[in-house]
Structures are given as structure tokens and as C-alpha cells.
Amino acid sequence: MWFGPNLQRSYKYMMFASKMPSLRIDQSDLKCKNGCDYFGNPQWQGYCSKCHREQMQRQRKAEKASSATLPKPEQKKQEKGLKLTSHSSFSKFEEKRLRQSETLKKANLLKFSVFKKSNTEDHDHSSEKRPPEFKIPALVNEGMKSEFRARFPQLPAQVDRDARVFVHSFIMDVIKCANVMTVDELSERVQRQYQRFMKHMDTSSHFANVDSDTKELLMDFVEKHAMTYLHELPSVVFSPSGTDDERLDRAMSERIQQLSWVGERHLECKLDRSNAECRTLLYKAISELLGMDSAPGPGGKLARVRRACRHVLRLCSAAPASADDLLPALIFTVLKANPPRLVSNINFVTRFCNAQRLMTGEGGYYFTNLCCAVSFIENLTAESLNMDKKEFDCYMAMPASIGGSSWAAALSLCGAAREAGEQRGAARRLLQHAADLQAAAQQLASNALSFEEQIAKKVQDVLAKTPLEIKPRRELPRLGKLQEISTAPLIDLGTSTDREEPQPQPVPTSQPQPAHTVPVEPKELNVTLDPPEDEPKLNILGFEVIDRQSPSKSPQNLDQTWDLKRTNSLELLTPSPLGFTPFDSRSIDELMTPDDFGNDQLPPGLSNINYDIDLSDFSGDNSIAEDAPKSEPKDPFSPDALKKTQTFDPFAPQTSRGYDAAIDSFDEFSFVDQKHKETDPFEVVHRGQDPFSPVEWNVDLGKDQFRSQSPAKQSTSILDDNDSPTTGCLLPSPLQPQSSGRPN
Amino acid sequence: MTSGPYNYSYIFKYIIIGDMGVGKSCLLHQFTDKKFMADCPHTIGVEFGTRIIEVAGQKIKLQIWDTAGQERFRAVTRSYYRGAAGALMVYDITRRSTYNHLSSWLTDTRNLTNPSTVIFLIGNKSDLDGQRDVTYEEAKQFADENGLMFVEASAKTGQNVEEAFLETAKKIYQSIQDGRLDLNAAESGVQHKPASPGRPLPAPPAARDNCAC
């Protein structure tokens, strides 16, 4: 990689020492070659700036005189002569070649400028022919205005105007010169512009009250706005045409890629890569370096470099930070970052940043370090890494992809990996949740299944046990009585029960009401036949409903014990089927009893006293009896409920046990029924097992033993209770069916 | 304008050069923070130190650039020198090798800085007198031969550190007064803040206009 001499202000030339052959230089050697008393400068071919400028102007005039397409032979000659002192003949030749190519390039660019470039090249023509054509967009002005107000509110408007005028003229000047000057000349011109503005600030009365710090800020402000605009223009100040910057960018990028195997071990910088904080710092530094390319203006780029270097500094915090540590770490960082257009950026800053600031200040310091790092990378050899030459060559021969960007990749990956880890954790938790949910759902399903089976089984059992007893029963005698009663009084009874329906329909008696009244025997017969089918499923409800009704019938029972038994058993059946007339009719019969029945029409076999008590009870019972069929579907033990159990189950998984218990208890009931039914119809009522039923409370209050005793015994005790009219009132509570299972 | 503590008339740029491990950073730290770094927690940005001092009634801001001393970086660290008004050349009195390298450091400094740059030789670690490897006389002779100012100092105790920096500043200021240092040259390493009253600037405005090199 070689550098053309036209890059005189490139970062390489910041260290111009290599050109100086002798140890000591006489004062005279530093003077201008023209013999004027000022100091000369190697960058100006040994002239002082004034003489150099004159020289250049002479050259340019001559150049213009000659044809534009030809390279400038006079200039070549002169420059050759000037540089004889410090360059070998070969380098002169090289220099000449490059010079020529550069000029040719420029000429070509000029030719195509009309098509290719808008502002700059355009203006190149206009600068000679139609000067007023080029205009700086108003955006620049506006941007300056607003930012000036924001940053320097205390400064007079005059200063603002001066700054804007300067920026305007500055930009115009640069654009005008961009295509007739080499980069170095342009750079000089820009630097002179900066100095001009500094001088203006020192001398102008507008700036009399501005202190030096603010002036520096103003300088930066001006530089920023001018350069930000110029930076956007292609090939004017940033990697300008006629320079090798772009090629060098590529070369540098390839070089860094090739050197990707270089690690902190080779550079002897102590980085604790395992440390997360360290990695973070390195990553920050790298991103700052990468951001340098996008920052407009030299100031912004410098700021990026400064921030990057600060991160790097903290990287090598193991030892007290010194330049001994900073530079290797910075080299390492640059190697890992491989910033885009690195050379162009560095050259841009070197050429067009305010030289004063580049030389002093923190930004300048770090930028110098960066230049050192880049130049180290460029000239990196086996010795500079303290390694064997063969090994070095071996590494360098290795395809870049091998040693490759693995580190940078790993670096960026580590951040991504951490994020991924967090996300994975979250995902795992979610999965766990889902699994739990699924398990619970399955549990629910199985519970539901087993529950269903259990229920089915219980029901089967119950069915197997219960149905037999019902068939034999016939209430014929009682029905007969009921019929007689139903004919007239039923209507009134309906009213008495607060039921609206019974009133209008009393006369038809048998059919709508008949359901209630059930006067006709044949129907009843049907009913009695039917129940067996329904019985099994209805048993549960039947029991409870019966419980209510049974007390109501107690008066009748008093009359005829045998009948009572029958009625009870029948009533067990009644609640289940919705449309069964006989049972309903019966209940209606009972309904009739409460008010009218009691006094006016006493059916023959009934005792007055009994009726009085029963009637009151019946009124309540009747209403319940009517309601009962409606409530059936809710009851899990009813036939309807059985069908629905599947849908019903999932929501009540916990209750399954309760139901089991309920079923068990129910069995007991059933047993009780079976056993005692013949003995006493009231046994069915046994709610001794239901702690919440009012009956049981009474029982408990009356006799504590019942609880502990077996249901069979309870039944007897309950029977005792039933004897008393008050208990009969308590029995019919509608809540029983649901609550019955819970206590167990 | 100059009444505030942070106002100053000049900015001088120093560089500190010398082999690795001679204590460049410690000297800098001792001077800017008056601390020895081994004693205090690491602070960010130590290698770029600034401090405002006063010379002949003028407030001067010193900007001190620490440099990497490794041999392999020698070729690339030359840009540090650009525009340095003062160069502090440091060696370790307990390590003779650091003293032997002084001549090459001096060569670089002479070549890379302008003639008016003040070079100050510092023998560091004078607190470790028992392990001395380079005698004071020998170093003094070297300094005299090359026209350098010389002092033995200790970054640990702070002995002579202040003096080294201040003497350098005085010398630079002197050369400004004498007109040997062109303030307007970017490479002079000196920035003048003209806002200060009573500017003792010898540089005539005409010269500035004619030769903005």
C-alpha cells in the first residue's frame, strides 16, 4: 500500500518527520526558499505560505493558458524541482504519474459533471461564466438561525448575521475552488477561512463583548454548519475527486479484515473479555467508531472519536490508564470495528477541521491516537506484534473468513444472546403455564369422566334398588277421595295457594289442573305405570320433594296409615316427570286443602284438626311442588341433569367428591327408604344427614344422638319429629336437594 | 474577561514521552490532580490532562498529551508531536535502558517539533534512590550537552513535578515574549486568547497576515 504524495495533509503527513534527514536543522533550513524572512514549510515545498500561494497562482495561470485536457507540465517541472531535496528519483516518477492521473481524473469529472453532479460541478462552470447561478439552499441559513438562537441566546443578532454571512461566503468559496484546486490547496484555503473568521471575531466590534470560550464555540458552530453542508456534496471535501481516499478506504477495510486474527494477546493489551461490563464498553466504543462515518462535519466526527476513546480508556481500567494502555486497546477496537470509510473520514477531519482544535483539546488528542492506531494497522508487521515472521505470514495467508470477524460477531452476538436468553426464559415460563393448564384441563376431563361414571353407576345402583317398590303401590282409595274433593272446591283452593292458574282452570279440572288435581283414575293408572321408568333417575329429587310433601300428607296419614305410605311412595315419584298429571293433581288436591278445604268442605275421612295444620303446610308445599319440576334440570341426579353432566362437570370438579358423598348419602336414603318405607312413609324424609336443613337443626336441638346414629335410627327419630305439626312445616325447605350432599 | 478562574490567556500543548513504564502517566496525574495514581481509584481521561497555571501574571492552560511509549508504536506515534510547545522527556532512574533510549527520543522530538519547542528532561522515581541505576551527574551532563533542562522528580512523592511543568511553561512564555515562537502558526503548540487585556504579544499583525503557516 503506497500513498501518493498528493495526500500531503493526510494523516500520514501529520508525522512529517520521516522526511527530515538530519538530526538538527538550522534555522536557515526552515526559512522560505524564496529568501523572504518567513519560515518555510515542507508542505508548501519549502516556501512560506505567501510565496507558495504566489507560486501556485503562477502555476495555475499557466495551466489555464495551456489546454485544459493536458496535464500541467510546467507545474510538474517546478514541483519536481522543488521536491528534489527530499525525494528519490523513483518517488519523483511515481509522484508525477499520480499527479497526471489525478489531473486526468479531474478533467474527466469535469466533462461528465453536467450529467453526474448537480451543485458542485455545476458551479465549477458558473464560477467562470455565470457566477450568480449557484445558490446555497435556504435550509442552511434557517438551520443556522434557529440553532444560533438556541445556543447563543445572549449574543446580539449582529453576531448571528456575521456567522451566517461568513458561512455563506465560506461555502461559496469552497465550492468555487473545489475543482480548480487540489485537496491540499483547498484544505489550506479552508484553514485560512477559519483564521479569517477568528480574526474577524477578534477585531470586529460586534464581538467585543464575546469572551474567548464563546468565540471558540462560535468557531465550532460556523465550522459545523459550513462543513455539514459541504460534507453532503459528493466528492468536494469528503473523499474528494482526485484523491485516493476511496481506494484507500477499500484497502484499509480489506487490511483490517485480513488482520482480524489479531487479538489482544498480540497487542499486549489487557482486556477482560469475560467481564460483561468490559464487553459492553467495547461494544459501545465500536458503535461510536462505526458512527463516525455518519456524523456530518469534522466536529461531529471528532466527538464520536472522543466518545469511542473514552470507552476504550475505561476498557483498560485494570491498570492506571495511560497512553501505553490506550493505544493498544484502541488499535484492538479499530481492528474489531473495521469502521467504514476510515481513511476518508480521517483525511476529511485532518484537512478540514479547524487546525487549532485538532492540535489541542481532548478531541484532538484522541483523534491523534486514532491516527496512530490506523497508521499502526497499516504498517503492521510481524515485529510490531512481537511474533515470528513465519507465523505472521501464515496468519496473513489465512483467508479472512477463518480468523474472521468471529470476534466482532461474537461481540454482537453476546448482546443478542443475552436478549435471547431472557426471551427463552419467558417462553419457558409460558410453556410451563400452558403445560400446567393442560394438565389441569386433563385432570378436569378425567374427573368429569369418572364423575360421570360414578354417577351413572350410582344411578344404576339406585335404579336397581328403588324401582321395585313403586309399582306395587296404588292409591286408588285415596284418589277416589281426591276426585270427589276436586270437583267443586279445587278452584277455590287454587286461589288460596296464590297460584293464578288454578283459578281459571278449576272447572276443567282434570286436564290442565288435572295435572294437579288428577281426578281420573285411568290417568293415574298410567302415571303409576310410568313412574317406574322415571323413578330411577328421579329418585333424588323425588325424595326431597317428597320430603316436603310427605309432612303435608301427614294428616291423611293419620287417617289411614296404609294410605299414607302409598302416598308417600307415590310422591317420591311425582316430582320427577313434568307432565305427569296424577301427581300434580294430587298436589293440587293438597293445594285445595289449605283454605277452602279446611272449613267448608271437609272430605269425609279427614279429621278437622289434622286438616287445619296440614293446610297451612300445604300451601307452602304446593308452591314448592309446582316449582319442583322446574328445578329438576339443575339437579345433577335428575334424568335431564344426567344428560347434561358432561357439560356440567368441568366447572364443578371439586364438587365431585361432594357428589360422591351425596350419592353415598343418597344410597343411605334409598336404603332407608326401602327399609322403612313400608314401616313408615316419613322415613324418606330423613334429612338427618343434611346438617343445613332446618329439620335437622331441630333434630339436633331436640336430640343430639341422631347425628351420630345410623340413618336407620335417625329415621325413627325423625318420625317422632314428624309427628309434631311444627316439624312438618320445617321439612319442606326447597334448599335441601342441593345442600344435602355438602355436609358429607 | 480573565477574572474567572477558568479564563486564561494561553494554551500550551505539552507532550510526555519516554519508554513504557517510566511513569509518564503518573507524572501527569500527579501534576493535574496532585495525586499518585496507585493511591487513588482510577479516573477516566487521565492521559489527557489539563491544568491552568500562572506565569508572570498570565493564566496559562496546559494541555498535556500522554503518549504510548512502546517501541513498536514509535513509528506511528509521531503525530503526537505535532504542535507541541513543550516536551517532557522522561526516563526511569532505576532502569538504565530507559536512559539509553533518550537519544532516540530526543531525535524524534527535534525532528517532529518546531525549533522553539522546549524540551525538559525528567528523571522519574527519584524516591527510589536506593535502586538508582543512572546517576544525577550523568543525566545532567547529557542534558547540558543537548541544551535540555533537567530535573529529577518523583511522581510518587510529587517532588519536583510541579517545578518541571512550571519551568517548561516559563521557558515557553519567555520564547513567546522574545518573539521566537510564532503564536499564529498552528504548529506552535500555543494558542493565544486575545480577549485578555494587556496582551504581551510580540507577534505583529502584519506577520500574521503575510505568513499564516
TrEMBL record, chain A:
Domain of life assignment: Eukaryota
Keyword Zinc among record annotations: yes
Entry keyword set: Coiled coil, Metal-binding, Zinc, Zinc-finger
Coiled coil: 427-454
GO biological process, one term: vesicle-mediated transport
One GO molecular-function entry: guanyl-nucleotide exchange factor activity
Region (Disordered): 59-84, 487-520, 620-656, 706-744
Biased composition (Polar residues): 644-656, 707-727
Any one Pfam family match given in the protein's UniProt record, by short name: zf-A20
Keyword Zinc-finger (UniProt): yes
GO cellular component: cytosol; endocytic vesicle
Biased composition range(s): Basic and acidic residues: 73-82, 627-643
SMART domains, per database record: VPS9, ZnF_A20
Domain A20-type: 26-60
Domain VPS9 per the UniProt entry, residue ranges: 246-386
Protein name: Rab5 GDP/GTP exchange factor isoform X1
Protein encoded by which gene: LOC113504389
UniProtKB/TrEMBL annotation, chain B:
Catalysed reactions, as listed in the record: GTP + H2O = GDP + phosphate + H(+)
UniProt keyword Transcription, yes or no: no
GO terms for MF: G protein activity; GTP binding
Gene3D superfamilies in alphabetical order: P-loop containing nucleotide triphosphate hydrolases
Superkingdom of the organism of origin: Eukaryota
Cofactor: Mg(2+)
GO cellular component terms listed in the entry, alphabetical order: cytosol; early endosome membrane; phagocytic vesicle; recycling endosome; trans-Golgi network
Principal location: cytoplasm
Compartments reported by the entry: Cytoplasmic vesicle; Early endosome membrane; Golgi apparatus, trans-Golgi network membrane; Recycling endosome
SUPFAM superfamilies attached to this UniProt entry: P-loop containing nucleoside triphosphate hydrolases
Matches recorded under Pfam families: Ras
Name of the protein in its database record: Ras-related protein Rab-14
